[in-house]
């Protein structure tokens, strides 16, 4: 897909909402500007942030699916085909706000994709909810699946007990040992503890200025956790990442998915009119005709 505008999961979400979903003939869910802005996690197009040197190369003679995934990750962006959609979403903002919102941060490495800096307020709410969920509910699942046990927890937090103490307040008075006893006790105690941690993080959320030059409140402000609560969330996520996400069995499943997707794509590309759904096949034929006309004109 690199030669055809690339592919990126968040960009595809935007495309589904605004074009592919079946609630309207050609406008997807027909979302409002605010909804579009809310799912626009990375307000830059693929061509604006891609760095071709950041991509790896397939080894000569190796199978197409046999590659190191870290060398083939696309930039975080929306797809070039959604440029008009993003312009529509940003239309109410003045030129300076829109320009600042879409500005990127400087990369420190010549082999990195460029990155965006800012998100709209609604997007930061969604993003933070996602981070809390990944940290706490993935922890709950990992304990249920016995991928994390009490000894792992105690060993990891042996020098981090201060993180719990720093978060103590009227609605949260648990120590690292208290949390361990509940998480690795009866299932109802585990759910109660996870609920307490979720409550701590949700009720700790603050509104912060992400850049004072934004005129619109929708762009000026973001939600974030206080430093001490964010430090606790990051520590919990780091444990989950180390013991679950990076676990060899999970990585093996991810690799199998990589192989399956590449092979499925090749099957579809080899004979599109045979395997694609009727409506998608119609679009393919129309694009093919348009491409033939374009080539005939040269």
From TrEMBL:
It holds the Pfam family HD_assoc. The keyword Flavoprotein does not apply. One of its GO terms (molecular function) is hydrolase activity. It comes from the Bacteria. Residues 224-290 form the Phosphohydrolase-associated domain. Keywords: Hydrolase. InterPro entries: PHydrolase_assoc_dom. This is Deoxyguanosinetriphosphate triphosphohydrolase-like protein.
């Amino acid at each position: 897909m690199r030669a055809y505008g690339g592919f990126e999961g968040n960009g595809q979400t935007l495309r589904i909402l605004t074009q592919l979903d079946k609630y309207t003939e050609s406008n997807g869910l027909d979302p409002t500007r605010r909804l579009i802005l809310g799912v626009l996690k990375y307000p830059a197009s693929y061509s604006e942030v891609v760095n071709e040197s950041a991509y790896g190369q397939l080894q000569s003679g190796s199978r197409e699916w046999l590659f190191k995934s870290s060398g083939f990750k696309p930039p975080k962006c929306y797809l070039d085909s959604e440029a008009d959609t993003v312009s529509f979403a940003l239309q109410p903002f003045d030129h300076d706000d829109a320009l600042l919102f879409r500005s990127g941060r400087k990369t420190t490495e010549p082999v990195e994709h460029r990155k965006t800096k800012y998100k709209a307020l609604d997007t930061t709410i969604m993003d933070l909810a996602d981070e809390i969920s990944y940290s706490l509910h993935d922890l709950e699942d990992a304990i249920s699946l016995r991928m994390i046990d009490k000894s792992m927890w105690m060993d990891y937090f042996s020098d981090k007990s201060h993180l719990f103490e720093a978060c103590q307040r009227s609605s949260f008075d648990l120590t690292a040992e208290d949390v361990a006893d509940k998480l690795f006790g009866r299932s109802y105690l585990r759910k109660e503890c996870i609920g307490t941690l979720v409550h701590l993080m949700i009720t700790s959320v603050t509104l912060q200025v992400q850049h004072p030059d934004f005129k619109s409140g929708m762009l000026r402000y973001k939600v974030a956790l206080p430093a001490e609560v964010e430090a606790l969330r990051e520590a919990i996520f780091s444990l989950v990442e180390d013991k679950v996400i990076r676990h060899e069995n999970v990585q093996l499943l991810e690799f199998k998915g990589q192989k399956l997707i590449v092979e499925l794509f090749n099957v579809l590309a080899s004979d599109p009119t045979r395997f694609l759904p009727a409506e998608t096949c119609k679009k393919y034929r129309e694009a093919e005709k348009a491409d033939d006309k374009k080539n005939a004109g040269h």
